[in-house]
Structures are given as structure tokens and as C-alpha cells.
């Protein structure tokens, strides 16, 4: 098994972990963490893809850009978490499922 | 680096204006300068000025064809689809900025709101010009980021926060899926340029999976069922101007991103058309049934957006399936009309929300029953909201009928029994939608005013003007359906060309 | 000519716009403007009469899939435009008294004028898309005017029901227009009638039955008729104008217009005859057992429209359109005079009326004129046209249908006399002060009564006009004296008259016949419950609502569930693509 295949498998595994986390967690912080795992999987996949198509530089520069964008999203997510805690007094997602129907 | 051309100015102007708007508002507030709504007016003039490069770019495109602008590896190209999205976002954006002046009170951080709104308009114009898969993702992500804070703008309200959290998380999942898709495409074809991918693409499973990831990933933002669940919350909780932008432009921008990415994978499978049609039917049905029993005005309108995305998807699917541009032209026409109609509906509903709730510091949702007898005190808004929903329901002589008709006609032109059946199903859906639009109109024109209406606040002229403009245009397009052909027809043909289908 | 078309549609629309802009307190001006604009439209329509033609007279280029918007002022179209604008003017004049002192007059008159213009456009249009657009605009006006009293939940329900049912049927017409476009490349009706073969046979029958569905929904025919009784919540002039004299005729007009193209379609004429027969017969029974004056008239409208639809089915285009004219006049008269009575008594329940003839002699006189025409007594206009339909039916149509229609004529006479008796004769059963109607009410009903007595004289002119300008129908209409003589001497007429007389006698001797009447009780119960059609309506509504409520539980509000939606969608799409590729 080549390194690339292993890395690709790793990306897929990370991706599955991230999605699984989003499916089960009820904590706001854990949601942000799961999102991060999800995006890290995508980062890994981009680097692997760059390598696979013999354009490692391209893959890496894409990854750098994604990290920047992703950080902003993470910051916003965390800021919302702080605000949720402040307004609702809890991080529990069950308190955040009032809008239904 | 090429010389800056008109269309690059069109994108850069709002993006440059955004921080200026923020700083000006911030500084004037810090120093207690008595300049009132400086951020609002700066934002308005920035967008108003953007119309100049827009007009130049439009005439340039008409004369010389698509123009490319290269910065290193990144290429921006304004084609007819990009122009359509630019026109839609700039048009609605200008009106929304005008509207938001009195709507957003200073203590809520007016400068933040306007600066983000202006940035969002610029980013969406950029999104339309992206011609590279990763570049597309970057604009897409930037659009999402600029809208996150606007959705959760009332960050002291639990409901607003809930909507914001769902919006952020679901968007982020969607964009991660898109990234995975991009990685697959890169690994398989070794390029990210849309045209080069299309030429290099084969029918491998990797690319098929990438297509699915694009459909779902961008589909989250486009509010395709079952990825739509964030939309009713976000659209109903955001400030009304933002609801109008989200519904009128942002989900359409998602749809255009989806189409761009699929156009690169056109050769992978012939089923994209069928897939879009299937999603279209699903969206219509779910959207209409969900809206049927709503009691909150903005939530009802939000679900109606789902069904209208369904019409667009149906038309696009027909175009791809039949390899004929007319379905896509109908869909793009409907996209523009939906921007007008839903913009009008949300702005008018927002005006009521403002006059009846927000102006007295109350953030509870606007119920349909709150509007009882509102036509007497707010004749302009009541007329606007009524015409908007009747137009959304597809009644002539309003805009919505005309674009739905164009989609339906394209469906029948295929001479395919299944597609004709889908068109009839879509028409049935239109009738069903009247069952929730019509009571809204009846409520507005009752004679007994609800207590809220009796104590309603007066509306500023700046709230009324955009509503009047949109009302007039909904009627104008209904009477003269050719009004936007110069935008929607070339866009439809350009889409078919991008898919490599004759056009 | 072309500017007359623009004026006929444009004048009322301009008036609608102006009146909408007026303030609530300028009610005098609103009344005056409405009358002026309605009359002007009537004059414009009348001015078209001398120069009818089968040629396209006005073409507005729209382009792309919308084709050209074309108008053809042929005999049929102009005639119906005249009916719409003239009856419209009379209804507006009547409204000045009837709506005196009501709130939201601006909305009322604007919608009435918008309707008048749209109705004129509908019958003059030669582009099927344009026809459909006007068709929908009339539905929009009808809905808004039925629920004019928005505070009354029954009015709102009636309006929305009318809107939904006519729109549902309208899909048939939508399909028709799309089919024409898909195979012919434009929407021109005259081109299509000239050469219906451009459509493949199966598409032609899709279109034919689509138009039948649309017509049945618009003309309130079984099984789509349930909206019309509910529409009686509208102010009475609206019932007279939209729900008796004009809009409901649009369906019959559509069938008559397309008859030459559809008559060869398998089973189409039989279907049309059946729809007409069922509507004529069942609605007559419903009218017989109705207690609400306006509902009784509404059922009677359904029944009379059934006669016209039946006539189209038997190929008697001229007879159907001639009855349409008679019916428009006498039914508008009946609705307006009923409106005057209701305005005065304050209830629509006939059980609360009785003996009103003494206080309202004028209204009694005109109502009876209308009633005699409805019952088909010589020599009112309803007599001539109904006899013409029955005579043609006997010669051209199947016998079973003819027998049913004949029985319907008897029931019509019976319910008409019942209605007159319950309202104007006998002892007063309600209480409260009764006042005779206002002057303008008398003016408009008086004119309509004069019309009821005289419009049959137009039989020759009307026939000639249709014969000359409906070139695809190949009509052959006799000259007036021949026609009149034929009707009087035909055995069918004697047969029909004896049935009518039997109906009359049935009401006269109702006391001795009480025993037989009792045995009809189950029929009465079935008729008052609308023969189960109302039940079907309610079930469909309930199921849709239940479905919507069930679907709403899928929006749980939980973030985990929402993410699951995304993942589930991804898996489904992956599977579909894997299978489809």
C-alpha cells in the first residue's frame, strides 16, 4: 500500500469521524471541534490530491488558503458559542432546538 | 497582472468600500460626531457607484464577449451568468441598503451591518466570475462568512443565535464536502480550471463521487431538500433586509456555484439533468407543504423560497436533459423574478415587523394574524406584500407567472411525456401555494385592525421607497416579460455552452 | 378597430388604477368615476359591433416563449365583450345604491373594473396564452371580490375555495396552451382552428380534455361546481356580474371556441354532453331544495350553464351562445333584484322572507320577469334560447341526454316558482322594516328586465354575425323569422312546454302532492348535502392539511438531525449516480 493510499484513507477516516461527531454531539464546543476535524480531513485530501497529480505546490497552497478561511469560520463558531453561553447559560444544543415546524 | 477592466472594478469597489464603511461608522461613533447614519449613506453610495462599472462591464460583454482578468494563477472571467448574478445582487443589494438605514437602529452596530452587506454584494459578484474550482470555493466561503454574522445579527436573542449556529454549522459541513470534491477532481484530472476539467473528465467513479459532493455541498446553500433545514430558521430570524438578500440572492448564488461546478463534470454522466429535476420536484412539494400550515409570516416566506428553488431546478434540469437553452433561460428569468418578488415580500413583511414589533423593542416573530387590517394604516406595504405573494403564487399579470410559464413552455417543448407530467405537477404545486398565499392577502385587507396595527409605528420614507420600486417592477415584468431578456437569455445559452451542449 | 380593443380593455383598467389611488373619504367621486369608466367601456365595446371580423386586428409583439399577443374581434368575442361591459355597467350603477356607505369602496370598484377589462380581453384574445392570462386575472378578481368582506370567515373561505378550484381546473387550459405552443410554435387560436392536425392525436385529446376540465371548473360544472354556492358571500352585484352573467360563461365560451378542433376527438362530445347533463339535472335538484335565496340562484346558474355545455356537446354552438346571452341578461336581473331584496330584508334565508311583494312591488315585477325567462315561458328570451337548445339536442344529441335535459327543464320551472312564491307571496315570516329599493337599483334592474323581454329579437343579427365571422365553425344559422317559426312549431317545444307546465302545476298543487313529495325526501337530503361533492372537497382539504402537519414534524430543530439530512442526501445521491451512470 502506497503512502498516498494510506493518507487518502486517513482523510476519509477523519471525514467520517467529523461527521459522526456532528451527528451525536450535543455540546456547542464539540460541534466546533467536529467541524474542525471535518475540514482537516478535506485539507489532507487536498494535499494528497496535489501530490497524486504531481502538483504538490498547488495542493499545499490550496491547503494554506483553506486554513485561513477555516480559521475565520472557527472563530465565528466559537464567538457564537460564547454568545450562546452568555444568553442561554448553557452550551447544550437541546436548548438550541426551539425553532421547529 | 492585466489592466483593471470594468468588471474587476465592479467587484473591487464594494470590497474596498466595506472596511471604509465600517471604519467611518466606528470612528464617527467613537468620537460622538453628529453625522447620523454615515455608514448607511456611505454603503449606499458605494453600491450606487458600482452601477457605473456594472453598466460598462455589461456593454463590454455585449460587444466583445467574456473578458478575463488574470492574477497569477487565479483567473476571473465575466460571462453572461456572472453578469446575471452581479445584476441581481447589486440590484437587490442597493435597495436593501437603502431600506436598512432606518430599520437597523444605531445601538445594534449599524456600521457592522452595512459593511458586511456591502462586502457580501461584492463577494457574490466575484463568485459569478470565478472560473476555477478552488477560486469558486473561496468566493463561496467568503459569501458564507459575510452572511454568518448578518444572520445572527440580533445576538442577544436566543432564536437568532439558534438560527445562526445552525446556519454556520450546516454551511461549514457543506463547504467541507465541496473541498473533498475538489480534492477528488484535482487527483483525477490534475487541474482546477473548469474548462480544462471538462475536457479531461472521463466517467470515472471518482468524478462521479465529486459530482455528488458538489451537489450536496453547494446544495446546502441552495437549500435543496433534505439539506434545507437551516433555511427557515435563518431566513425568519435574520433582519428583514438580510432575509431578502438570503432568499433573493444568496441561495441563487449557491445554485450558480453548483451549476459551475457541475458544468466541469458535464461529461461524467448524462444524469445531471434528471438529478436536478428530481430535486426540483422534491423542493417544490416539501416547500409548499411545509409553508401551508405556517403562522409566522417570515417563516412562511422562507418555505416558499424552497419551492421556488424547486422551479429553478426544474427548468435547469429540463435544459440539461433536453440540451436546449430555453429551460435554463426560464430558470434564470425566474431567478431574477424571484429576487424581485421575494425581495419585495421580505422587505414589506419586514416593514410590518418593524412597525408592529421591532420599533417597540419587541423581537417576537410577526404572525399572520398580527397583520389583520393592516392595509388601512399601511396601504403601500399591504399592496406590496399582497402583490408579492400573488406573484409568487403565479398569478398574472405579475412577474412570477411569466417566468414560471417560460419554464413550463420549455418542459412541453421537449415533447417528452414524463417531463410534461412534471410540468403539470409543478402547476399543481403552484395552485397549492395559493392556499397559503391567499389568506395572507385576506388578512391584510380586513377591516378590523389588530391591536398591534392600531398602535403601529409610522414607517420612514427610506423603507417605503425600495418597496415601491420593487412593487412597480413586479408589475412591470408581469406586463412586459421581455424586460430582463437581455440578462436571462444569454445566461441560459452560456450555461448550455459551459456544459458543452451546443447552447 | 384596434384602438377600440385597446379602449375596451384599457378604459376600465385605467379607471381601476385611478379609483385605487383615491382616499377613502372621497366616496362620491369613487362612485361617479366607477360609473363613468364602466359606461365608457360599454360604449367602446358597442362601437366594435358594426365592424366585426375574423382577422387579427391587434398584434403586440412580446417575443421569446410568449409569442405575439393577438386579438381577433370576431362576432362571438365582440358580443361577449358587449355583454361583459354592458352588464358590468349596470352592475356598477346598481352598486352605487347597494354599496352606499360601505368601507373600502376603492378596492371594490377597482377590482370590478379590473374584472370588466379582463373579461373583455378574455373573449377578444386570439393568443391562447393571452386568453389564459385574462382567464387567471378574472379568477383573481373573482376571488378578491368574493372575499370582499374579509372579516367574515365564510367570505374568506368562499373566496379561497373559488380561487383554488378554478385554478386547479385552469391547469387544463395551461396544458392546452403549452401543447399548442409546443407543436405549433405560437399560441394563435385561429391558426390552430384552421389546422388542428399540427397536433398528434394523443396531444389533441390531452388538450381537448384539458380544456373541458378548465371549462368545467370555470363554469362551475359538476364535479367542480362546489365553489359557486360558496361564492355567494360576495356582494350581490358581484354575484350578478361575475358569477352569473360573465366569468362563469368563460368555460362555455372556451368549449364553443374550440369545438371545431375537438369535435373529432374520441369521446369528447360525449364527455361534454355528460358534464352538461349532470350539471343541469343535479344542480336543478339542489336549487329545488335550497333555502338561501342566493344559493338557489347559484345552483340555477350551474344548471343553466349545464344547458349551454350540453348544447356545445351536441354541436349546437349558436344555440349555446344564444342561451348564454339570454341567461346573462335574465340571471343578472334575478341576482340584482334578489340583491335589492336582501339589502332590504337583511337576510338571504327565504324562510325569513315571504309576502315582500307588497312592500317591493317594483322588485317583484322585475324578479318575476326574470323568473319567467328562467322557467322558459314564452315569449321571454330564455324561452327562445332554451327551446333552441332542446330542439337541437333532440335532433343531434343522444336520446338519454335529451330526456334528462327535458326533466331538468321541468324542475327548473318548479324551483323558479317556489322561489318567487317564498320570497314575494304568502305571509311575511321574518320581521323588521322593509323599504323599496333605491332609484339606481330600479334603473339597472328595469333596463335588464327590458332586455329580458327583448334580446331574443336579436336572434337574426346575432346568428348572422356568428355565421360570418366564425369561419372555422361552419355555422349555418337560419334567418330570424325562419328560426322563430321553427322554434314555435317544433314538437320539441310543445314537449318542453308541457314539462314546464307540469313543473308549474307541481308547485301549484303542492299540497295535494305532499305525499309524493315526502317520498322524495332522500333526494332532498342528498341535494342539500350537494350529492357528496362537498364531502370530497372537505376530504381533499383535510388530507392535504394532515399531510402538511405530518411533514412539519420532520423539521425537528435539532442540529444533529439537520446534519443527518445532509449525510442522508449525500448517500442517496451517491447511490442514484452509481446506479444511473
Description of the structure:
The complex is a heterotrimer of chains A (101), B (503) and C (581). Chain A has 101 residues and is mainly alpha-helical. Chain A has a single domain, classed as Orthogonal Bundle (Helix Hairpins). Chain A contains three helices and no strands. Chain A has helices at residues 3-24, 28-52, 56-88. In chain A, helix 1 (3-24) packs antiparallel against helix 2 (28-52) and helix 2 (28-52) runs antiparallel to helix 3 (56-88). The longest helix of chain A is centred in the C-terminal third of the chain and has 33 residues, at 56-88. The N and C termini of chain A lie far apart (50 Å). Helix content of chain B is 76%, strand content 2%. A two-stranded antiparallel ribbon of chain B has the order 1-2. Chain B has helices at residues 6-30, 38-64, 80-103, 110-129, 133-151, 158-189, 194-200, 205-222, 230-237, 240-264, 272-292, 297-322, 325-356, 374-377, 379-392, 399-413, 417-444, 451-454, 461-479, 485-498; strands at 67-71, 74-78. By secondary structure, chain B is mostly helical. Chain B folds into three domains: 1-129, no CATH class; 150-269; 272-503, no CATH class. The longest helix of chain B has 32 residues, at 158-189. Chain C starts with a helix and ends with a helix. The longest helix of chain C has 32 residues, at 153-184. Chain C has one domain. The mean pLDDT of chain C is 92. A two-stranded antiparallel ribbon of chain C has the order 1-2. Chains B and C meet through helix 6, helix 8, helix 9, helix 11 and helix 13 of B and helix 5, helix 6, helix 24 and helix 25 of C.
Q: Based on the structure given, which CATH architecture of chain A is correct?
A: Orthogonal Bundle
Q: Given the structure, what is the number of helices of chain A?
A: 3
H/E element string of chain B?
A: HHEEHHHHHHHHHHHHHHHHHH
Rough outline of chain A:
elongated
Count of DSSP strands of chain B:
2
Number of helices of chain B: 20
Largest sheet of chain B: 2 strands, antiparallel
Report the radius of gyration of chain A as a whole number of Å.
17 Å
Number of beta strands of chain A: 0
Question: How many structural units, i.e. domains of chain B?
Answer: 3
What proportion strand of chain A? under 5%
Most extensive interface: pair and counts?
B-C, 81 and 61 residues
Any low-confidence stretches of chain A, pLDDT <50, length ≥5? Answer: none
Q: What oligomeric state do these chains adopt?
A: heterotrimer
Amino acid at each position: 500500500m502506497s503512502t498516498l493510499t494510506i493518507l487518502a484513507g486517513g482523510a476519509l477516516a477523519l471525514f467520517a469521524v467529523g461527521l459522526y461527531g456532528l451527528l451525536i454531539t450535543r455540546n456547542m464546543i464539540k460541534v466546533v471541534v467536529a467541524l474542525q476535524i471535518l475540514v482537516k480531513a478535506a485539507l489532507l485530501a487536498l494535499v494528497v490530491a496535489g501530490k497524486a497529480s504531481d502538483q504538490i505546490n498547488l495542493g499545499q497552497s490550496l491547503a494554506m488558503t483553506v486554513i485561513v478561511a477555516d480559521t475565520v469560520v472557527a472563530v465565528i463558531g466559537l464567538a457564537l458559542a460564547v454568545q450562546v453561553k452568555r444568553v442561554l447559560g448553557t452550551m447544550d444544543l437541546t436548548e438550541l432546538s426551539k425553532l421547529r415546524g | 497582472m492585466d489592466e483593471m477592466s470594468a468588471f474587476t472594478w465592479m467587484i473591487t469597489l464594494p470590497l474596498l468600500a466595506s472596511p471604509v464603511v465600517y471604519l467611518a461608522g466606528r470612528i464617527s461613533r467613537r468620537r460622538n460626531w453628529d453625522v447620523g447614519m454615515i455608514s448607511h449613506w456611505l454603503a449606499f453610495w458605494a453600491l450606487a457607484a458600482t452601477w457605473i462599472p456594472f453598466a460598462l462591464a455589461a456593454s463590454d460583454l455585449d460587444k466583445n464577449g467574456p473578458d478575463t482578468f488574470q492574477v497569477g494563477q487565479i483567473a476571473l472571467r465575466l460571462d453572461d451568468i456572472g453578469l446575471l448574478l452581479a445584476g441581481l445582487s447589486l440590484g437587490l443589494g442597493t435597495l436593501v441598503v437603502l431600506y436598512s438605514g432606518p430599520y437597523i437602529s444605531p445601538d445594534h452596530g449599524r456600521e457592522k451591518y452595512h459593511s458586511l452587506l456591502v462586502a457580501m454584494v461584492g463577494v457574490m459578484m466575484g463568485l459569478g466570475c470565478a472560473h476555477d474550482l478552488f477560486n469558486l470555493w473561496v468566493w463561496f466561503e467568503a459569501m458564507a462568512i459575510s452572511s454568518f454574522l448578518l444572520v445572527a445579527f440580533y445576538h442577544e436573542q436566543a432564536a437568532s443565535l439558534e438560527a445562526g449556529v445552525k446556519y454556520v454549522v450546516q454551511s461549514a459541513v457543506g463547504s467541507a464536502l465541496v473541498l473533498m470534491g475538489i480534492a477528488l477532481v484535482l487527483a483525477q484530472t490534475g487541474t482546477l480550471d473548469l474548462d480544462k476539467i471538462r475536457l479531461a473528465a472521463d466517467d470515472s467513479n471518482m468524478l462521479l463521487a465529486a459530482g455528488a459532493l458538489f451537489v450536496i455541498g453547494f446544495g446546502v446553500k441552495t437549500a435543496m431538500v433534505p439539506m434545507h433545514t437551516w433555511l427557515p430558521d435563518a431566513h425568519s430570524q435574520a433582519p428583514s433586509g438580510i432575509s431578502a438578500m438570503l432568499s433573493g440572492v444568496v441561495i441563487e448564488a449557491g445554485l450558480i456555484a453548483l451549476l459551475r461546478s457541475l458544468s466541469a463534470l458535464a461529461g461524467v454522466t448524462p444524469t445531471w439533468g434528471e438529478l436536478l429535476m428530481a430535486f426540483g420536484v422534491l423542493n417544490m412539494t416539501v416547500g409548499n407543504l411545509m409553508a401551508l400550515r405556517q403562522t409566522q409570516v417570515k417563516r412562511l416566506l422562507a418555505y416558499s423560497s424552497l419551492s421556488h428553488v424547486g422551479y429553478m431546478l426544474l427548468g435547469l434540469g429540463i435544459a440539461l436533459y433536453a440540451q436546449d437553452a430555453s429551460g435554463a433561460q426560464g430558470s434564470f428569468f425566474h431567478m431574477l423574478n424571484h429576487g424581485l418578488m421575494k425581495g419585495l415580500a421580505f422587505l414589506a413583511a419586514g416593514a410590518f415587523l418593524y412597525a408592529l414589533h421591532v420599533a417597540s423593542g419587541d423581537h417576537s416573530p410577526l404572525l399572520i394574524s398580527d397583520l389583520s387590517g393592516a392595509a388601512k394604516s399601511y396601504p403601500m406595504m399591504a399592496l406590496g406584500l399582497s402583490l408579492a405573494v400573488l406573484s409568487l403564487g403565479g398569478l398574472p399579470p405579475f412577474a412570477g407567472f411569466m417566468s414560471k410559464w417560460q419554464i413550463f413552455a420549455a418542459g412541453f417543448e421537449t415533447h417528452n411525456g414524463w417531463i410534461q407530467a412534471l410540468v403539470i405537477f409543478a402547476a399543481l404545486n403552484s395552485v397549492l401555494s395559493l392556499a397559503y398565499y391567499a389568506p395572507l392577502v385576506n388578512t391584510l385587507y380586513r377591516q378590523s385592525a389588530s391591536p398591534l396595527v392600531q398602535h403601529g409605528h409610522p414607517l420612514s420614507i427610506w423603507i417605503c421607497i425600495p418597496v415601491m420600486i420593487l412593487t412597480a417592477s413586479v408589475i412591470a415584468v408581469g406586463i412586459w416579460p421581455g424586460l430582463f431578456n437581455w440578462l436571462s437569455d444569454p445566461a441560459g445559452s452560456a450555461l448550455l455552452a459551459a456544459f458543452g451542449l451546443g447552447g | 378597430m384596434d384602438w377600440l380593443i385597446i379602449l375596451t380593455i384599457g378604459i376600465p383598467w385605467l379607471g381601476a388604477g385611478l379609483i385605487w389611488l383615491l382616499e377613502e373619504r372621497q366616496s362620491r367621486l369613487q362612485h361617479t368615476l366607477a360609473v363613468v369608466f364602466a359606461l365608457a367601456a360599454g360604449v367602446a365595446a358597442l362601437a366594435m359591433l358594426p365592424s366585426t371580423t375574423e382577422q387579427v386586428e391587434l398584434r403586440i409583439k412580446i417575443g421569446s416563449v410568449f409569442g405575439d399577443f393577438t386579438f381577433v374581434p370576431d362576432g362571438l368575442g365582440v358580443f361577449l365583450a358587449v355583454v361583459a361591459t354592458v352588464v358590468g355597467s349596470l352592475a356598477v350603477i346598481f352598486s352605487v345604491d347597494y354599496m352606499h356607505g360601505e368601507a373600502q369602496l376603492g378596492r371594490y370598484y377597482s377590482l370590478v373594473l379590473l374584472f370588466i377589462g379582463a373579461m373583455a380581453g378574455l373573449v377578444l384574445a386570439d393568443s391562447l396564452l393571452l386568453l389564459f392570462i385574462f382567464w387567471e386575472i378574472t379568477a383573481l378578481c373573482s376571488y378578491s371580490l368574493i372575499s370582499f368582506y374579509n372579516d367574515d370567515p365564510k367570505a374568506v373561505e368562499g373566496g379561497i375555495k373559488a380561487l383554488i378550484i378554478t385554478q386547479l381546473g385552469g391547469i387544463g387550459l395551461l396544458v392546452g396552451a403549452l401543447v399548442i405552443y409546443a407543436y405549433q410554435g405560437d399560441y394563435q387560436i385561429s391558426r390552430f382552428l384552421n389546422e388542428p392536425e399540427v397536433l398528434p392525436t394523443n396531444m389533441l385529446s390531452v388538450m381537448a380534455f384539458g380544456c373541458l376540465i378548465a371549462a368545467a371548473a370555470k363554469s362551475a360544472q359538476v364535479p367542480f361546481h362546489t365553489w359557486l354556492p360558496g361564492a355567494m358571500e360576495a356582494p350581490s352585484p358581484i354575484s350578478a356580474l361575475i358569477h352569473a352573467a360573465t366569468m362563469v360563461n368563460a368555460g362555455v365560451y372556451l368549449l364553443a371556441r374550440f369545438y371545431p378542433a375537438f369535435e373529432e376527438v374520441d369521446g369528447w362530445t360525449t364527455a361534454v354532453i355528460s358534464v352538461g347533463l349532470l350539471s343541469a339535472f343535479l344542480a336543478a335538484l339542489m336549487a329545488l331544495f335550497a333555502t338561501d335565496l342566493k344559493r338557489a340562484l347559484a345552483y340555477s346558474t350551474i344548471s343553466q350553464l349545464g344547458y349551454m355545455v350540453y348544447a356545445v356537446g351536441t354541436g349546437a354552438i349558436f344555440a349555446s351562445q344564444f342561451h348564454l346571452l339570454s341567461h346573462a341578461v335574465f340571471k343578472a336581473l334575478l341576482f340584482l333584484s334578489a340583491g335589492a331584496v336582501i339589502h332590504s330584508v337583511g337576510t338571504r334565508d327565504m324562510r325569513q322572507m315571504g309576502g315582500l311583494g307588497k312592500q317591493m312591488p317594483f322588485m317583484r315585477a322585475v324578479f318575476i320577469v326574470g323568473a319567467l325567462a328562467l322557467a322558459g315561458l314564452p315569449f321571454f328570451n330564455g324561452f327562445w334560447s332554451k327551446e333552441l337548445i332542446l330542439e337541437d339536442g333532440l335532433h343531434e344529441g343522444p336520446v338519454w341526454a335529451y330526456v334528462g335535459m327535458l326533466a331538468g327543464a321541468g324542475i327548473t320551472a318548479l324551483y323558479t316558482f317556489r322561489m318567487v312564491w317564498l320570497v314575494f307571496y304568502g305571509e311575511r315570516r321574518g320581521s323588521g322594516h322593509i323599504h323599496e329599493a333605491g332609484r339606481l337599483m330600479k334603473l339597472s334592474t328595469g333596463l335588464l328586465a327590458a332586455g329580458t323581454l327583448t334580446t331574443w329579437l336579436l336572434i337574426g343579427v346575432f346568428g348572422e354575425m356568428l355565421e360570418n365571422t366564425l369561419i372555422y365553425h361552419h355555422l349555418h344559422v337560419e334567418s330570424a323569422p325562419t328560426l322563430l317559426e321553427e322554434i314555435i312549431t317544433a314538437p320539441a317545444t310543445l314537449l318542453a312546454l308541457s314539462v314546464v307546465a307540469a313543473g308549474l302545476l307541481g308547485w301549484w298543487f303542492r299540497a295535494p302532492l305532499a305525499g309524493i313529495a315526502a317520498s322524495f325526501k332522500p333526494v332532498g337530503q342528498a341535494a342539500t348535502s350537494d350529492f357528496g361533492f362537498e364531502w370530497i372537497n372537505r376530504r381533499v382539504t383535510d388530507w392535504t392539511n394532515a399531510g402538511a402537519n405530518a411533514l412539519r414534524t420532520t423539521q425537528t430543530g435539532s442540529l444533529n438531525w439537520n446534519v443527518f439530512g445532509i449525510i442522508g442526501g449525500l448517500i442517496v445521491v451517491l447511490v442514484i449516480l452509481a446506479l444511473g451512470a
